[in-house]
Specification:
Layout: H1 2-9, E1 16-22, E2 25-32, E3 35-38, H2 51-55, H3 58-71, E4 76-77, E5 82-83, E6 92-95, H4 100-110, H5 119-133, E7 140-143, E8 148-149, E9 155-157, E10 164-165, E11 168-174, E12 190-197, E13 200-201, H6 217-221, E14 227-228, E15 234-235, E16 246-251, E17 254-260, H7 268-278, E18 286-288, H8 296-299, E19 308-313, E20 318-325
Parallel strand pairs: 6-18, 8-14, 9-20
Antiparallel strand pairs: 1-2, 1-5, 2-3, 3-4, 6-7, 10-13, 11-12, 11-18, 12-15, 16-17, 16-19, 19-20
């Protein structure tokens, strides 16, 4: 188990920030490959109780974390510890339809020919829609923190869910309270990055009883465990440029998603800036940046109990989540 967890939590830079559990005790820690350093007793860091305590003071504690990683004693093996989500956000912002190829694939998958358009026309209309969208703000909605689970936890498929699908995404972790930040300055309020898998019940996105009301993201996105997050927060200093990171998701060993963040319609800075014009961003908040092509619905292959999703993003480690039925 140690070898697999070490591989999954491998990350860019000398250290990453994690939330770990040793039995009932939860503590913030630095992670460096197969070693962890408990930060609870660090007087230099103000004896933080959780990663949220550090994110509230991120600009001040970042150089201390660097120094601690280089000089501190007391590292212990990662083996035997439970890796939790690295953050407990107060707010979760989720960008929708933000990868060009993904938008086209979903449009084609939902097309039933009832409007008389051919597949080629549907594709052309989707491309034209993206060109138009670039003249307007990104499309962002909110998720619930209660959907979050750890990077290696089981994903529970709801008994009444019919089309559970995967959506691997890069997430920005906010490290500074921010309101109306410009796109040029938006990355300055980002503490770092983490991996999320923003699972979706496809059949619940659009309600047939009220089609004029639009997407029902509450029902589609927020089942418990539908947002595996982590394994760690990799500081932005270790991955300063998110514009060309590779996202890869395998289902039972078969590659399903494999795309670069280059395919984003709106870049990370634009999404963060937009969120800050609508709401006040708080330290520890998650800003999800959309999912690339390769989801299950266009493939006609959705999640079933027993499936295992293995997900990686360049420099951020990896996730491994097994799907189980709610009745189990």
């Amino acid at each position: 188990m140690l070898a697999s967890v070490t591989q999954l939590i491998d990350h860019a830079g000398d250290w990453a920030l994690a939330r770990l559990a040793d039995g009932d005790r939860v503590f913030p820690a630095l992670v460096s490959r197969d070693r962890v350093l408990d930060l609870c007793g660090s007087s230099a860091l103000g004896s933080p109780r959780d990663t949220g305590d550090l994110l509230d003071r991120w600009d001040d504690v970042l150089p201390v974390l660097d120094e601690t990683a280089r000089t501190a004693d007391g590292w212990r093996p990662l083996a035997g510890l439970h890796v939790l989500s690295p953050v407990e956000p107060r707010q979760v912002f989720q960008a929708g339809a933000n990868y060009r190829t993904h938008v086209i694939d979903i449009a084609v998958a939902h097309a039933d020919g009832s409007d008389g358009r051919t597949v080629e026309q549907v594709r052309a209309d989707a491309v034209a829609e993206m060109d138009t969208r670039l003249q307007h703000p990104p499309y962002v909605f909110q998720g619930l923190p209660s959907a979050i689970c750890g990077a290696y936890d089981d994903v529970v498929l709801p008994l009444d869910g019919q089309q559970p699908d995967w959506e691997l995404e890069l997430a920005a972790v906010i490290g500074r309270r921010a309101r109306r930040v410009s796109p040029d300055d938006a990355l300055d309020v980002v503490a770092g990055w983490t991996i999320v898998n923003d699972l979706t019940l496809r059949e619940r996105i659009f309600r047939r009883d009220a089609p004029a009301l639009g997407a029902d993201w509450l029902a589609a996105k927020n089942s418990p465990t539908f947002l595996p997050t982590g394994p760690a927060l990799v500081p932005r200093t270790a991955v300063p440029d998110p514009s060309d990171l590779r996202l890869t998701l395998r289902l039972n060993g078969e590659v399903m998603q494999d795309e670069s963040t280059k395919d984003m319609l709106f870049d990370v800075a634009r999404i963060v800036a937009h969120c800050s014009t609508v709401a006040t961003l708080l330290p520890g908040d998650l800003v999800l940046t959309g999912s690339p092509a390769g989801n299950g619905l266009p493939r006609g292959r959705l999640l079933r109990a027993g499936d295992v999703m293995d997900s990686t993003i360049t420099g951020l480690g990896a996730q491994a989540n097994r799907c189980i039925s709610e009745q189990d």
